[in-house]
Structures are given as structure tokens and as C-alpha cells.
Amino acid sequence: MRKLDTDIVVAGAGPGGCTIARELSKKGKRVILIEKGAYSKRFYGTLLAPLRYMEKYGFLYRTIEGDWIVQGKGFGGGTLIYAGSAFMPNTARWQQYGIDLTEELAEARKDCWVNKVPDDFIGEGAKQLLSAAQELGYPWEVLDKFIDPDKCKPNCPMCPYGCPTGAKWTGMVFAEEAKRNGAVLLPRATVRDIIIEDGVAGGVRARGSNGQEYEINSKVVVCAAGGIGTARIMKRSGFDDAGRWFTGDPAIMVFGYLKEGKGGMRDMLFSVGYHDEEHGIVFNNLSGPRMYWSLQRLQEKPRKPGNALLRWGKAIGVDIKIADELDGQIFLDGRVSKPRTKRDISRLEWGAAAAEKILIKAGCDPYNIDQSGVIIGHSSATVRVGELVDSNLETSVKNLYCCDTSVIPDAFGVPPTLAIVSLGKRLSKRLETIV
């Protein structure tokens, strides 16, 4: 057993955990940041990245109902494999829970390289979708992304595989800064449970991949292992209700093939789109390297399998993501249940129909449009604010906090990274005064 002492121990190095480690280490606090994934950029920015930076290699992780779950692992968490979409959270909804993110959102946008996609980075396929959607009355627009335009390059669909030029912000940027500030990074270690004595958190127990056991004593514990990971740690620590709720912003991809012109698979992913708050749906343009696109399309059994192999250059797609209901559960044995409610099904069907209209308007063959299965991308609301954490993100156990997608009170339906970084900044300001 290896024993360590620190001011703050953070379990999980996603955007929330990396933000807290960065902010508090800048203030001279002793921080230990634990992550079950690697502290490494090996294969990052290549087509092999999903094998290293996705939970269960990105291919084997499914709900009990059979839908895919996408989760990142490694320092940076989900930001290592996300498309870099920087949707603004609805601040009024957070204020209902006593959380004002106005100041922190402004800081996060600056620190995380949030910029609107430059016009010359919007590919031909994305332009066709943008024009077609607007003509049909859907107010699509050019989107904000976590990118440095000076490092980025046009006609690159590599965002989810890691940016080969370093143009996409990830939590790894903050983890590296925290390390330079003196924080201790503990990779390939899994937090077992939280040390609690007399209703006060005093550290965590963890195990490294080599079997090394750790007991880390600290003044403050922050769970930031993601919607699923945090729920399991909390369950193992006596919070039976953790994981009793679950949202995942289910998404499907709708594909068509242009009769004329160039497709959109080489375009920057999620460069144009629209948040339809009335119907609880986010629309984005799709792209992807030929190999993964072909494998995915064949796995989904399209109407004409030959298109998946031969018509990548003519393909164009729309991603739809819905705000789902709080219906699901996280189990200690690793299983995840996420049934679809009637409202979820209705939203997916409405979004798919709208996407099909846009694709046809953009010039696709109406008799050859396919859609993927359901993908769960934003595992959230498992340790909800207002239920298991308060407006300061503190649990009923003193000095135990949560800061990741698990605290989202209900499905917001938009990519959550900007909100999570803002929450991390807000929590850091509180912790700075008590440790």
C-alpha cells in the first residue's frame, strides 16, 4: 500500500478534473489528479486513436438495450475524441439551481480557444447543407468550436481522432499546465472508493494497472470521472442513488449521396448546424475518414452496401442529437441501461425526417438515404445537482464534490464541455478559499 497526502485529490481527468487541477495548482495548492487512462499522445491524431482513447476501444461498449456508448479515456477524457463543438449552455437553466456561470463562461471561452469556424474552413458539402437547411426554414449557422484557427487546416475531418496539428483544445492542455504548476498526475489508476469518516471525506483508495494499491489522504475530494465513472465511484462509496438517473443525448447519423458535386466527408466535422430548442434537437454536418466511415456504414447494414465502399466521395451527412428523458440506470457490474421513451423516439424520428429533407434539398437521391443506429455520447445526470449535489457541487458528505457531466440536472441536449469547464472554474474558486 502506497500512502500519499495532498490538499485536493481529483478522481478523473476529463475537462472538469483537468480544469480543477489547473486552476488550483496555479494557486499553489497541492493537487493529485488520478486517471485510469494513459498520460500519453501515442496514436493521437491518427486513425488508431479510437483504440487508445475510447473506453472499451470504442467498439465494444453498448447499453443493455444495444445502443453504442462513446466515452473517452486518458488525460482530457471525452475532449480527446470529441468534435470540438462549443455550444453555449443555457445559463438561465443553471440559475434555476443557484448556479451563475456568467463570469466563468467568459473565462472558459478564452482559455479553451473557442472561435467561430472561419469561412474558408467550411467545406463544399457543409456549405450545401447550410444553404439547403436555410432555404427550408431551418436557421442553421456557422458554429463555434474549440479550435485555434492559426493551427487548423481546411478539409480535415480528424477532430474525433485527435488533431494532428494541435489545433483542437482538449483537457490535456490543462493537465499539462497543471503538471508544470506542480500537480501530481497519476495515470493508469482506478479509484475504488472514497474514504469517509464521520460524514467527512478524507481521500480515496485506488489501484494502479500494475496492481499497486494507493491510499491518498486529502482535505478535499472531487469526483470528475464522467457521468458513468463518477456514478460507480459514488455507489461504491455508499451513495445508493447515484446512477439512478441517466441521460445520454442519443444521436443518429443520416446519410445521403449527392447526384452531382463533391460530398462532405472531407469537411470539418460539426462546422455548421443548429440547436432547435423547441424540439430538443441539435443538427450538425457530418464527415469522416473513408476507412471508419465505410466500416460504420457496413455495420449499420445500409440499403445498398456498395455505397459504403464506393461512394464515400459523394456522401453527405447530418448528425442529430436529442435532449432525452431521465430514464436509465448505471449498474456496479459495468452494465448501463438506457431505454428510449416515447418522447425520445418521437424526437429522433422528427430529427431524422428533418435531416432527410435537408439532404434531399442539398441534392441527394431521395431513394438512397440511410441512418445509423443510436449512439449515446454525453453520459450525464447520474449525480444530479438538486438531488445528490448542491449548488456548490458538494454532496451530503462534507468536502466531497462532483464536477463533470454527472451533475447536469437534466438533458440539455447540447455538447457539454463548455459548461463543464465553467463549472470546474467556479468550483475551483470555492475550493481555493477552504484548503
Find the CATH topology of the largest domain. FAD/NAD(P)-binding domain
CA-based gyration radius = 21 Å
Count of separate DSSP helical elements: 11
Order of helices and strands: EHEHEHHEHEEHEEEEHEEEHHEEEHEEEH
Number of strands: 19
CATH superfamily of the largest domain: FAD/NAD(P)-binding domain
- Judged by helices, strands and strand pairing, the structural class is alpha/beta
Which residue ranges are poorly predicted, with pLDDT under 50 across at least 5 consecutive positions? none
Q: Considering DSSP H and I runs of 4 or more, what fraction of the residues is helical?
A: 25-40%
Mean pLDDT: 93
Please characterize this protein's 3D structure.
The chain is an alpha/beta fold and 435 residues long. The protein has two domains: 2-39 and 74-112 and 169-243 and 382-432, FAD/NAD(P)-binding domain (3-Layer(bba) Sandwich), CATH 3.50.50.60; 116-160 and 250-376. The protein is 27% helix and 21% strand. It is built from eleven helices and 19 strands. The chain has helices spanning 15-26, 49-53, 91-95, 102-111, 124-135, 171-180, 226-236, 290-299, 305-310, 342-361, 417-432; strands at 2-11, 31-34, 68-69, 114-116, 141-142, 144-146, 184-186, 189-197, 200-208, 213-223, 251-257, 272-276, 281-286, 315-322, 329-330, 336-337, 370-371, 375-376, 400-402. Strands 1, 2, 7, 8, 9, 10 and 19 form a seven-stranded mixed beta sheet that branches. A hairpin with a 4-residue loop joins strand 12 (272-276) and strand 13 (281-286). Helix 1 (15-26) packs parallel to helix 11 and helix 5 crosses helix 10 (342-361). The mean pLDDT is 93.
